[in-house]
Design a protein that fits this description.
Layout lengths: L15 E4 L5 E7 L4 H4 L6 E4 L3 H9 L6 E5 L2 E5 L13 E5 H4 L5 H4 L1 E2 L2 E2 L4 E5 L5 E5 L12 E2 L11 E3 L1 E2 L2 E4 L2 E3 L11 E4 L11 E3 L12 E6 L6 E5 L27 E3 L9 E6 L6 E5 L27 E3 L9 E6 L6 E5 L27 E3 L12 E6 L6 E5 L20 H6 L8 E6 L2 E10 L2 E6 L7 E10 L6 H9 L3 E11 L13 E4 L20 H5 L18 E8 L9 E15 L2 E4 L3
Antiparallel strand pairs: 1-2, 2-6, 3-5, 4-5, 4-6, 7-8, 9-10, 11-13, 12-15, 14-16, 17-18, 18-19, 20-21, 21-22, 23-24, 24-25, 26-27, 27-28, 29-30, 30-31, 31-37, 32-36, 33-35, 33-36, 33-37, 34-36
InterPro entries: Compl-Cell_Adhes-Reg, Sushi/SCR/CCP_sf, Sushi_SCR_CCP_dom
Pfam family, one: Sushi
Protein name: Sushi domain-containing protein
Length: 614
């Protein structure tokens, strides 16, 4: 619009006048920004930037839904409603109502478009060919909405905008409407039902015949279970136009009248499923039973065979005491012998109503508690038996072996427990054969009143008793040397172990360098061992007794087959002669002697090993 806008602001007056054209003016009021929310029900439905106040006023006039506008700087805000009729006098933004300025714009400026007058809600545009036309910017009329539905709180009417109709009940169809280019709203294909659809049907239930067609919200419909089932439930038409859930699980069966009996009497006549009825036998018989109403509406079987006769009072005894006075057929009564005698017996109430015979001869004396021992253990199978004649076996605790028995005598005392029967195994093989553990140090007794600790080993299916000594492996021998072996048990004990073993052996390894065992073929060796009898041996370990040879000399495997031992080669090479001493009469090795000036050798003698038992 052409024209000059002049705003004259006076702090002491309520209004100012703005020149719109040469002859017309618009009245505005001033208000502060803090008052906008108090003056407008909602936020602006449209904001236009970079426009002046006069154009802002025209934008409001061109829109049917605009009732007031505000101008802040170059920002124009259009409002659909207002909540006050007067404006306060405050310094701030311009604010005015559509009704205050409609008549100040000449008709020919607002609505004339070429040769036509544009209706409200349209604007005049000039085409590229300089023609003019009225085009809709909004749909001026609020659309008519279907029953029970309503528009949202903020309604925009601009062309192309879509509104979504609101429904608090049951919406059906498309709830959106759109402002078209011709200024009309699309017709909604939408319904908002404030009632439920037809009542749900059921094969197992029937709804209330007096209320079969009721569908209004809040309607309550009762459904009754079809025979032969019983029960009922209700549904309600909810506020959203749907029915609450129909619960068909409430239906249940019920039994017919309970069975009758001439020999029994029942305690109730209830017939609901799960009911249990107790029947009691009529006198003179005794007994009772129960039946239950099953889920299929039938009663479980009534068992009249539970009725029974009873015996008279049970017999009494001066030497025994009974545990009950029950007298029904089949009852078993236990009689226990009065102290100091022990024993018990039973009688039973027979089907003919008489008691079986009471046998008082079962009473007997018993020994007191069994003797205990720190070195022996009672066999588990009879540890608690104490009656006269009872025999209890005691087994020696490991690592000892042996067992003995005691007996409960007729006078109620136990025979003597002999703990001296316990003994140690005489060697490792004997201990293993008796069931002992040979994985660590064990105690053996190779002779009377002599217990020693030894180690054991298993090799090649054989069990060996190991007797160690103090000589270190690879003991050095030079010039004239005599080494004595000290064993950890006495010589007599070692000899007992040897004599009670099937075989014994002791391994010797001799490493030599230019140290001949037989110098110049002499029979007197420079290196030899001493036997258990402290005698100088006439052969080297692995050789033949009295043979003055070594193991390789026996087997013909010496590095020089013409020699009796490898070390006899004396050839500036380290040689080894080794082997076992296996003759029990030559064991254990007690010393090893080396006699060769300016020579050096090394000897290793293993522990004595004895296997088996004789």
């Amino acid at each position: 619009m052409d024209g000059i806008l002049v705003v004259s602001v006076l702090m002491t007056i309520l209004h100012s006048r703005v020149q719109a054209t040469l002859n017309d003016t618009i009245e505005f009021s001033f208000t502060s920004l803090t008052h906008r929310n108090e003056r407008c029900i909602s936020d602006p439905f449209k904001i236009v930037e970079n426009v002046g106040v006069l154009h802002c006023a025209k934008y409001c006039l061109q829109r049917s839904m605009c009732q007031s506008f505000g101008q802040e700087g170059d920002v124009c805000s259009l409002f659909e409603n207002h909540s006050v009729t007067d404006l306060e006098t405050n310094i701030g933004s311009l604010f005015s109502f559509k009704s205050h300025f409609e008549h100040f714009f000449p008709q020919n400026e607002m609505y004339v478009c070429g040769n036509v007058t544009c209706p409200i809600g349209t604007i005049c545009i000039q085409t590229i060919n300089h023609n003019t036309a009225c085009v809709f910017t909004e749909c001026p009329n609020i659309p008519e909405v279907p029953r029970n539905s309503y528009l949202p709180a903020i309604v925009t009417r601009e062309v192309g905008k879509t509104l979504l109709l609101q429904c608090d009940f049951r919406p059906v169809g498309n709830a959106s409407i759109t402002c078209q280019a011709d200024g009309n709203w699309t017709t909604p294909n939408f319904n908002c039902f404030d009632e439920c659809v037809a009542q749900p049907t059921s094969n197992s239930m029937t709804n209330d015949p007096m209320n079969t067609n009721a569908t209004a919200i809040g309607t309550i419909v009762t459904y009754t279970c079809n025979p032969p089932k019983f029960g009922n439930t209700s549904i309600i038409c909810l506020g959203n136009g749907t029915w609450s859930q129909l619960d068909e699980d409430v239906c249940y069966y019920e039994c017919v009248s309970p069975p009758t009996s001439t020999s029994m009497t029942q305690n109730t006549n209830s017939t609901s499923v799960g009911t249990e009825i107790t029947y009691t036998c009529n006198l003179p018989k005794f007994g009772n039973t129960s039946i239950i109403c099953l889920e299929n509406g039938t009663w479980s079987q009534l068992d009249e065979d539970v009725c029974y006769y009873e015996c008279v009072s049970p017999p009494t005894s001066t030497s025994m005491t009974q545990n009950t006075n029950s007298s029904s057929v089949g009852t078993e009564i236990t009689y226990t012998c009065n102290l100091p005698k022990l024993g018990n017996t039973s009688i039973i109430c027979l089907e003919n109503g008489t008691w079986s015979q009471l046998d008082e001869d079962v009473c007997y004396y018993e020994c007191v508690s069994r003797p205990t021992s720190t070195s022996m253990t009672k066999i588990a199978s009879d540890t608690n038996a104490t009656s006269v004649g009872t025999e209890i076996t005691y087994t020696c605790n490991l690592p000892k072996f042996g067992n003995t028995s005691i007996i409960c005598l007729e006078n109620g005392t136990w025979s003597q427990l002999d703990e001296d029967v316990c003994y140690y195994g005489k060697n490792c093989f004997d201990t293993m054969s008796l069931g002992g553990n040979i994985t660590s140090y064990i105690t053996i007794a190779p002779c009377s009143n002599s217990q020693v600790e030894v180690t054991c080993k298993e090799e090649g299916g054989l069990t060996y008793t190991i007797i160690p000594h103090d000589l270190q492996p690879d003991t050095i021998l030079n010039t004239t040397t005599e080494v004595t072996l000290v064993y950890n048990i006495t010589q007599n004990t070692i000899e007992s172990i040897i004599s009670q073993s099937r075989t014994c052996r002791q391994y010797v390894k001799y490493r030599c360098f230019n140290s001949s065992i037989h110098v110049n073929g002499e029979d007197q060796p420079t290196a030899t061992f001493y036997t258990g009898g402290n005698k100088r041996a006439d052969y080297f370990p692995g050789g033949t007794p009295s043979g003055n040879n070594c193991a390789c000399g026996v087997n013909g495997t010496c590095n020089d087959t013409s020699l009796a031992c490898n070390c006899n080669s004396n050839d500036e090479i380290w040689r080894i002669d080794d082997g076992y001493v296996t003759s029990k009469g030559d064991l254990p090795i007690t010393k090893f002697e080396f006699n060769l000036v300016d020579k050096i050798s090394y000897v290793t003698i293993d522990s004595l090993e004895c296997e088996g038992s004789v």
